Amino acid sequence: MNALVPLPVLLPLCATGLSLAFGTRLKQFQRFISVAVLTAVLGLSVTLMIAADMDGPLTVHLGDFAPPLGITLVADRLSGLMLTVSSAVTLCVLVYSLGQGMADRDEETPVAVFHPAYLVLVAGVSCTFLAGDLVNLYVGFEIMLVASFVLLTLGGTGPRVRAGSTYVIISLFSSMLFLTAIAMTYAATGTANFAQLAVRLAALPLGVQTLIQAMLLTVFAIKAAVFPLAAWLPDSYPTAPAPVTAVFAGLLTKVGVYCMLRTETLLFPGNRLGDLLMAAALASMVVGILGAVAQTDLKRLLSFTLISHIGYMVFGIGLATREAYGGAIVYVVHHITVQTTLFLVAGLIERRGGTTELTRLGGIARSAPLLAVLFFVPAMNLAGIPPLSGFIGKLGLMRAGVADGSVWAWILVIGSTATSLLTLYVMAKVWNLAFWRAAPPGQALDGTVLESDEEDDSDSDEGPDRMPGTGDEGIRPRHQPAGRAVAATLHGHAVTTTTKLPRPMTWATAATVALGLAFTVFAGPLTSYTDRSAAELLARSPYIEAVLGR
C-alpha cells in the first residue's frame, strides 16, 4: 500500500507530458487524459484515506534513502482526507471548464496551456499534502505558483496580468521568507524532515523555536489569506476565469491552513502563539465579512467571505485542543466544497446574465430556477444554517471555545456568531438582488456578447458600459443571434449569455452541491474521522514512528 503514496503526484505530472505532446491536435484525447487521470487520483486518494485510517500513516522514502537525505512522502488521516476532497473538487472543476469551452480555445497559443497547467496545479497540491519535510513542502508551493500564474493570466488581458503580477509578487516574497525559514531550521537542527524536527526542535532555545515558528506561520498565513496578510486576494481572484477562481478560492488557501495544522501540531506543540493566532482569526472574520457587506460584485463579495471564513479555521488552530482541531478539519473540508461551488455558480450567473455586478442582475429565480437552487443550498451552507455541514463545523468550533473558557476563546465565540449572522445577511443580499427581484432594465439579453476592448485597457474614464471594480473594465455589449456562443472569458475577449446553460457546467456545479450535502448526510462518520485525525495530530508519535521506524 505504501507504493501508492507517490502516485497522486506522479500521475498528473506524467499526464502533463502527454497533454503537452498532443497539444491541440487531438483535443478530445487531451481532455480524456485529464479527466481519466483526475478520476484515478480521486480513487487513489480514497484508498489512501481508508488505509491510513485503518493501518496508520503510510510512508515511502523515494530511492530508499532514509531521512534526512531522502525524499519522504507521508499519508496520514489528515492528508488522506485533504487529498480526497481536493481530488473530488478539482475533477468537478475540470468538467465545468470543459463545458465552458475553456480548454478548446487555446489555438492562439503554441500549446494547449489550460490542461497542462491545471494538471501541474493538481500535482503541486498533492505534493504539499504528502510532503514529509519542509523542502518538498516548498517544492509543492513552487509547483502551484508556476501553474497558478499561467491560469490566472489566461487570455493576457490587462486586469488579469495586473492581478497575476500582484499574486506572483506576494507569492515570491512568501517563498523567499519560506526559504529563509528552512535555512534557519536546517542550520539549527541539521534536518528538514518533519519527523526528525519533531524530536530535535524541542532541544533548541525557546527564542530560536519561537522565531522559526513565527516565520513559518507568516508564510502559511500569506498562503491562507489570513488578515492582515490577505490584501492581495480580493484583487487577484475575481479577474480570472470562473473555474480558475473556483479552484483557487476553494482549494489553494486551504493548503496554507493545512500547513498551519501540520506544523503547529507536529513541530511546535504547546500552543505558544495561540493568542496571536486567535487575534488574527478574529480580525480575519470581522474585516472579511465587513468587506463582503460593502461589495456589489458577486466575485469580490465571495472573495471577502473567503477571507472571513478562513478565520474559523485559524480559530480552531489557535485553541489547540482535540475538539478544536476536529472542528477546524471539518470546517476546512466543508469550506473547500462550498466556496468552490459558489464561485462555479458565479460563473453560471455571469453566463446567464452577462455580469456578476449585482446591481445589473435580477429575476434569475424566475427565469432559471435550477440556477437559483444551485446558489441557495451552498449559500445557506456557508452561512451555517442547521443542519448543514457549515453549522456542524461552526458548532464544533464554538463548543471547543466554550470548553476552553479563556477570554480569547469567548471573544472568538462571539465573533464567530456575529460573522455567521453577517454571512447570512450577505447571502440574503445576493439572493434578493440577483434572484428574487425583477430583472432591471437593460439586463444582458440572450445572445449578448460582452467584448473587452483590448486596445483601450488603460484607466480611462468610466462610461455607461463599464463595470468598475469587477475586473471587467472596458466591457461593451454587442448583440448577436441567441445561442451563438463565441467564448467563455478564456482569453478575456467575450462571454456569450444564454438561457440554456451548457450541461457539463450545470452537472459539475450540481456535483459539488451534492458533495457539500453529503457532508451533512454523513456528518456522523465525518466528525468521527476528523476526531481521530485530531487525536493523531496531537499524539505525534504515530507520524514519527511511521517515518523513523521507531
From TrEMBL:
Transmembrane segments: 31-51, 81-99, 111-131, 137-155, 167-188, 208-233, 240-261, 273-294, 301-322, 328-349, 370-388, 408-428, 507-526
Major subcellular site: membrane
Superkingdom, taxonomy of origin: Bacteria
Compartments in which it is found: Cell membrane; Membrane
Pfam family, one: Proton_antipo_M
Region called Disordered, residue ranges: 446-478
Bilayer topology term: Multi-pass membrane protein
UniProtKB keywords: Cell membrane, Membrane, Transmembrane, Transmembrane helix
UniProt domain NADH:quinone oxidoreductase/Mrp antiporter transmembrane: residue ranges: 131-416
Biased composition (Acidic residues): 451-462
Family, per entry: Belongs to the CPA3 antiporters (TC 2.A.63) subunit D family.
Name this polypeptide is given: Na+/H+ antiporter subunit D
Organism: Streptomyces brevispora
